[in-house]
């Protein structure tokens, strides 16, 4: 099966706005997850994709077209990757600090970039590599005060597996989005993830009832804002730019999360964090610098 995508289509005028909305929306994810701390990780992940799947279903019935088998399989594989990502990463927060988990997870643009180069034959510029390193350094600085240990822990291992899973999410998704409209693609990806996460939840004995009203409210907000707007915006962008660029752009999340934590939880926004935020922004800009030439 040839996975090399065709040349990206011309980006619409709303492209920068959609990416901005996506970056802001995913920044709320860690806030909503923290606010529904009584809910098990797999249940949170299931709600995150399940609510959006239910919302998309009627649109899929009306607008959806029959999938070519190749692209249906790729979309199913992308959904499986998303399920494993959420399952591993959200579970990692139970065993390690948020800082350590997010820092380990932030290596995924390098993994996606390498996979894009070898599997999709998408050229990686020097600007992307340098920008990725700068961004990773910025993420490390942002969360440096939260590191309890650099040793390999179960939580860090789960977070790394969550990073690897994002390769399975982004690479097939990049190819499928070249041919499949956004609504059918999102429905197949999110519903596939929901089915696997639902099965895992039941397998581990997790329950979906008995939580506080506030927790359910934050679960819905997580689904609508962080998944429906955030992840969907980046899935939409896969039609127009390389998977590697989409992946590094999502690292804007620590910036928004840090600012929101400062506003909502009164967590300090120290000079160190401000330096880290500045490096993340600069690194993303460097990674994008040569994009028009590709």
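Q: What amino acid sequence fits the structure above?
A:
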């Amino acid at each position: 099966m040839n996975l090399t995508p065709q040349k990206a289509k011309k980006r619409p005028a709303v492209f920068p706005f959609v990416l901005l909305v996506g970056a802001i929306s995913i920044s709320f994810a860690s806030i909503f997850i923290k606010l529904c701390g009584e809910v098990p990780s797999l249940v949170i992940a299931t709600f995150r994709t399940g609510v959006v799947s239910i919302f998309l279903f009627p649109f899929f019935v009306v607008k959806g077209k029959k999938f070519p088998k190749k692209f249906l399989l790729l979309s199913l594989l992308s959904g499986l990757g998303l399920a494993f990502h959420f399952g591993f990463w959200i579970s990692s927060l139970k065993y390690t600090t948020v800082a350590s988990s997010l820092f380990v997870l932030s290596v995924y643009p390098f993994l996606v970039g390498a996979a894009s180069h070898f599997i999709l034959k998408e050229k990686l510029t020097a600007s992307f590599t340098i920008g990725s390193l700068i961004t990773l350094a910025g993420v490390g600085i942002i969360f440096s005060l939260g590191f309890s240990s650099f040793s390999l822990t179960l939580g860090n291992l789960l977070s790394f597996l969550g990073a690897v899973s994002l390769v399975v999410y982004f690479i097939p998704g990049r190819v499928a989005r070249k041919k499949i409209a956004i609504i059918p693609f999102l429905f197949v990806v999110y519903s596939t993830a929901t089915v696997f996460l639902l099965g895992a939840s039941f397998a581990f004995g997790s329950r979906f009832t008995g939580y506080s009203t506030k927790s359910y409210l934050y679960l819905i907000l997580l689904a609508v804002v962080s998944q429906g707007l955030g992840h969907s915006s980046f899935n939409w962008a896969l039609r127009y730019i390389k998977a590697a660029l989409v992946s590094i752009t999502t690292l804007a999340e620590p910036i928004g999360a840090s600012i929101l934590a400062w506003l909502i939880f009164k967590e300090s926004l120290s000079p160190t964090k401000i330096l880290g935020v500045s490096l993340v922004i600069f690194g993303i800009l460097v990674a994008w610098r040569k994009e028009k030439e590709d």
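Q: And what stands out in the fold?
A: The first helix runs from residue 15 to 27.
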